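Lab meeting minutes (informal)
Scribe: AK
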Amino acid sequence: MGRYHRVVSKCQMWRPGWKQVLAVWAATCVLAAAQAQGVVITQLEGEATVTDGVRRTSALVGQRLGAGALVETGAKTNLLRLEWPDAAVVDLGPASQVMVSPPGFRARGGRAPSVYLLQGWAKVTGQSSAPAGGLVTPQFELMPIGGAVVVFVGAREQQVFAESGAVDLGLRPAGKQRGIAPGALFNGDGPLLARPPADWLQRVPRAFRDPIPRRAAQLKDRTADASVLPPPTYVELSPWLAAEPDVRRDFPRRFAALAQDPAFRRGLQQRLSSHPEWASVLNPSK
């Protein structure tokens, strides 16, 4: 019985009109970056998608992801697990969006962040001898992580539960540090709780509640042939396009080809103030 139980009881190919040469080029670049990165999906219970460069696929066990890949789980997804070569593990719950190995964020304790959590549930697990890089959200950062930490980011609430091991939380953008003791819950603007209430623990994804063995070693020779999906629409990608500058800074280069689609381009033009770095793509002559 895990810690939670103890506490509670007590496709489609590219649409016609997209350049096939671009698709082949993108797939080749994504594969090379993923092989270098070594982040692999090792568990999947439900549906999820991966946007790596301009290539969007269904998520698949054994799939390797490059730095900057965007992963989104479905509303009914129980679990998606990511594993790193250094033994770091990130579990995602339902309706969650993360960027893998996000560029643009400085390292702490010699470790760069493992993921940027835009919204939803994430559990980051590291080891005291080999801490995980940790996690960054729009409101705070947890870097590095030598135990297990459960994080939720919603529209109006943010929580951090130090399941095992203490963790230092840095509030953004001020950088003010708050220590969270093992078993304690940080509840956004509320007081730090010595232990989380039972009703909050019951909200935690069930798959987070018990230890799950690592599987990366078993999948090291596995080839994942993920189904290619249509490129993301502006609406689908808009939460990331309107994210903080450090997150979206590289997007005009990564997603420039998407601006060839009239609907995507129209979305960029109508909300240019949310992502002004796209002006050079939309109006290269200026």
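Next up, CB showed the second protein from the same session:
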Amino acid sequence: MTKVLAVAGKGGVGKTTLSTFIILSLAKKGSVVLAVDADPNTNLDEKLGVKLEGTIGQLREEISRNVDNLPAGISKPEYIQLKLREAVSEGPGFDLVALGRQEGPGCYCYINQLLRTTLDSLSEKYRYVVIDNEAGMEHLSRRTTRQVDSLFIVTEATAIGIKTAIRIKELARKMDIKVGKFILVVNRAESLPENLKGTLGDAAFDAVELIPEDPNIKNAAENGDPLGGVPESSPTRKRVEEILAKFL
């Protein structure tokens, strides 16, 4: 049975870094993973070190242009399934699909529904699906299954960051997304100060996990290097593996 792990958080808190290390950790254990970059500001491919073959947004535009001129003997759902597979980028132990942006105006309701159904069908073929979301989590709200086993909400160690994480959690509940566990991940923090514990209050996360500052991550970002080259001894890599061991 497929397990869905989703990562959310406002920009700049390290959610794509966390998504990347979750994907790399699962792949290292021998599980073929479907990585979904659901943030319009697509950069999961760079963190993973793979060449992006295209985005679902671009695919939507292509299908819209050609929907009345399909090759003979192929239905619209079959054509979309074929094109979607062409948009999958392959990496060591994982496949990547990027949603991207909708490129132009127009009604895409029928095509969007076929894409959702096809993407969900594709997801079922993997042991794990890891979704790097935008903060608003629109992708999760549009999924046909709308079920997540673990939602990791990433924040920095500030009062505003904690409040934002709480709002994201509340948003998921209002969207009626079925979440097995809500996990707050405080990035670049050794401990949670007392004032932030007060801000967190009774928000009722299933767990609060801390990831320490890691110079390896900063160096990789400054050099534009993929995170696969970060050493196994990296505090972030080790901590992510410890966190996954608790919730898988």
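CB comment: The radius of gyration is 18 Å.
No objections, moving on.
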